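Data card: per-record layout.
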Amino acid sequence: MISLNNIMIMRGSQVLLRDVSLVLHKGQRTGVIGRNGCGKTSLFRVLDGELPIEEGELFIPSGLRIASMAQETPGSSRTALEFVLDAHLEFRRLEEEMLQAEESGDDNRLAHLHSEFEAIDAYDITHRAETLLSGLGFSTEQFSNPISSFSGGWRVRLNLAAALMCPSDLLLLDEPTNHLDLEATVWLEQWLQQYQGTILLISHDRTFLDSVIDNVISFEGDGLDLYKGNYSAYEKQRGERLALQQAMFEKQQRRRAEIEDFVRRFRVKASKAKQAQSRLKELGRMQDIAPAHIDSPFKFQFPDPGTLPAYLLQLEKLAIGFDAPLVENITLSIRSESRIGLLGFNGSGKSTLLKVLSGQLEAMAGDINESKKLKLGYFAQHQVDELDSHATPMQLLQKVDQKCTEQEIRNFLGGFDFRGGRVDEKIGIFSGGEKARLALAKIAWQKPNLLLLDEPTNHLDLEMVHALTVALQEFKGAMIIVSHDRHLLVNTVDEFYSIHQGVFSEFSGNLADYEKWLSQQAKLEDSPAGNNKEIVKLDKKEMRQQAAARRQRLAPLSLREKELEKQMEKTQKRLKQLEELLADETLYDESRKQQLNEFLLEQGKCSSDLKVSEEQWLEVQEEIAEFE
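The structure for this 628-residue chain is written out next.
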């Protein structure tokens, strides 16, 4: 048991936590959440003994083994595998002492050390390290590469592997998914579910949190609030608490109305794809969790891109890569309403494809036919790093559009929580999260009609990720997203494409199907057959056959669904006409009283009919869901 009693934590002259008391029980799995800069990492540093407390008492049981992710890894000639093995200090100690005993010929000492070696299962330790590296996306060839050869993102993965390798009773993980792809994120989630110790986890990935944690510590002002349950349970509890505050009530109601309107619009045009139905359910859940985010400092929209051509991009037999093609024969039509999620293992070519589409990289073969009205908005980590550090947020957006007034820019930046004097500060002093928000603001300010987003949630906190999700839901243009954030994908895209073993193809399932395939792949690699490097292929033919059988079973329900959607669309159209008619002031003259009454009666009937149709439509959706 770890206890904090009336502690104070400061960063410079800023008080992060004041008079905070908290108890962490053995085996507890806790998500630590709060806005960027609130003190989450500082709390971890206190628990890890790196930062002193200003006041109060901190009790940590003697002998408690703590493992945490290092924030930086200097380049060295140590290989990736050696680096991960180094984290197991007991293994390295025994290894050194055994070498000394062998050199001195001390057989008794050597026998004793072999016994200790077996006690920590050290003969299997290299395999465990290799498993960690593989799970986090390293290829076998990379195991022997020196640390100095890896980029910053890959060194973060090495730090994570080292933390998992180190025997521990308390595991402190600060944004472990920041530089992971979806596949590595799913693997880490499964690994943590098997971990036997206590976990403290900082993450902006709500799906990841929901799967791993059973408690939430939330930074509220300079205090901490503890909630039982996972992140979704926290949202519900916090929303209920905020609803009791009268000042928040009206804001909550307005946000509920906005989401209800979006869900209704989506219902009418929802495709029949399985992932679209899943997204619809998630949108309904978002309506319920909206109150938990009502005090968020972030609220922005991607401006309406205006007139949209039917097709924005047409890819014909595209080949992408560097010295040799990563992927060939990519053929894809990107329509004005396309909302695509790209799936695939790290290094498969997802980010490379976005670079090619954005013009950052030349295609190796094939054609890209662009609409004359195409206007791209491209987000990637290097875009964040390339922001002019000497400019201010105001100057950054003024350079994009010199016609807008300073007040218009201030109002826009306020939605990204750049307010007051912050809009005139130099970008160079901003944190990674602030720069990421500013890069997104710049893209939105350009009014794109096609968004290319490569891991847009990295370095954002949960509130900003939520605001980005809502903004993408309402975006009128097309988008292609690469992300490890499953909640973002489920709520913003309608179709998935995968890149696997150099092949680009449509993935007809949803994210749950993809996770099942990942699990199947992991089981194969753990089996003896995995040594032969056999790979489970995404069986497109089998998936098409399954989809056809499902469509046949769903045919009657699909027909009813279409009928109801036509009814709702017709009724909504008539309601809009009636609203326009009732807006005519002359209709309220005494001479037109009968006509007014007729319109009001018809409006009431249409509203009632629409409600009945929507309820029937939802019943059909529930029946359809039973087949999924």
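Known properties of this structure: Residues 218 and 224 are 6 Å apart (CA to CA). The chain has 21 helices and 18 strands.

See the next section for split statistics.
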